[in-house]
Amino acid sequence: MAKLKRVFMYLFLSAAAVISIFPFIWMIVSSTNRSVDVTRGKLLPGAYLFENLQKVFDTVDLVPALLNSAKISLITTALSLLIASLAGYGFEIFRTKVKDRIFSILLLSMMIPFAALMVPLYRMFGSISQTMPFIGIDTISAVILPSVTTAFLIFFFRQSTKMFPKDMLEAGRIDGLSELGVFFRIYMPTMKTTYAAASIITFMSSWNNYLWPLVVLQSPEKRTIPLLISNLGSSYTPDYGVIMTVILIATLPTAIVFFLMQKHFVAGMTGSVK
Amino acid sequence: MNIKSKTNVVSWSFISIAVLMICVFYFYPMVQALILSFKSGTGTNLNFVGIDNYQRLLTDTTFLAALKNTFLYLIIQVPIMIILAMFISVLLNDKNLKLKGFFRTAIFLPAVTSLVAYSVIFKYLFGADGLINTALMNLHLITTPIQWITDPFWAKITIIIAITWRWTGYNMIFYLSALQNIDNSIYEAARIDGASSSRQFFSITVPLLKPIILFTSITSTIGTLQLFDEVMNITKGGPGNATMTLSQYIYNLSFKYTPDFGYAATVSYAIVILIVIFSILQFKLAGDKNG
To answer: In whole angstroms, what is the distance from residue A195 CA to residue A174 CA?
Structure first.
């Protein structure tokens, strides 16, 4: 009986693992095959990876999209971390009743669905366009600004700050550091792992963001990776080998970040729940 | 006094940027959307129409179809995924399990993929002449290909399979980290008292996991109510409105059809109201089980 249970356990987990991995394997295998082979259901690696890569560089604007995505994700991550950690620190270290109340109001913004913000934000950036076209519709700033501050990240930093040894701050003040000096010279270096976890989740969600860039970016040369893939995917005569190669290249940065920093990633996800 | 008020100013400056940004990019647009929801017209040419938009919701077949689909995903997909995530995490938490790290990473892997990328992959896998149909036909499980994308019933199933694939591992991680915090001696005591493993699961594990169950069901509910990327890239809401979601409908109303921002804002408030109702409901439900 106990043995049967073990067998079932391994079978079930293996099935779950295979189902989870299979689409990745299919993506990798398909990027090495011609489109006709993919449609025939070929599941073995072929010899067409370089041909597909050549076709990608000839027919798809992959490099500009990669650069756009990288630029947006890096700027978003840097700004997000700075704003959210300052706030999380401020709410916890300089705690007052009023600030606690403001904090709970900020948390309410987590319940707001993006679909509800999309239309007013689009109109907002539309009117900004008239006076300041450099941050209006169809600019990188318009993509970055609305997603740069999230209550989730402020909450995350506040939770982590609870564990921070307050004596260290006092020591810094006695040494004559200003409040900002204490934050940048003492808090930031000590909280490296928190920043690492926060940067991974922020980078990934920014890299994969789809709806808002779809709404606000209009010129093809400003397209980000998700917009490019979506566009290729809706083609009526898809070249499967080429599309799978593009998806493979686009997934690599997040996959590498994930495998290098798996622990931080999980810590970032679960840290705020505990 | 002087020093005190100075530190006070400094302390506020730490939180000011964040507060300002959230007000500008969350609360102000929500107020704007509320005002918009009482207006109608095309493009920038909007007039006050009172509660006309809200009345229109009640007879709008696309809205009702989107609402019905969203509820279907909520009632079927969310429980399946949560039970699956919990079940897998309990298996993975077994002390004697070999290859634990491999299983955990593999099952979590879908959670790091881009929604658009996996949607496109699923669209091809589930195509009429896609790999899933080819495999099922070769195994003689079906004789004619299933129209996974173009049949109203199967299209919904495809979306449910896709979301479950993407999010089960994500939710599993929360259960796993909670399980690892449960003191093993509780189970040992139960075993000595002769509690079977299913009894242990329902009397110890489930009650201790309650906060996580609440957290994952609320986040999954909010996620489902906002479902967009998958539907947009797998079925485009079709066939007809068979897989249309509220977010996709708002997108269509604002950017695909002749823009009616006023009515789109009304539909978006429907989502806001649903999120509030569901969150209160789930908190109540969790609270009642406490007693």
So the answer is: 26
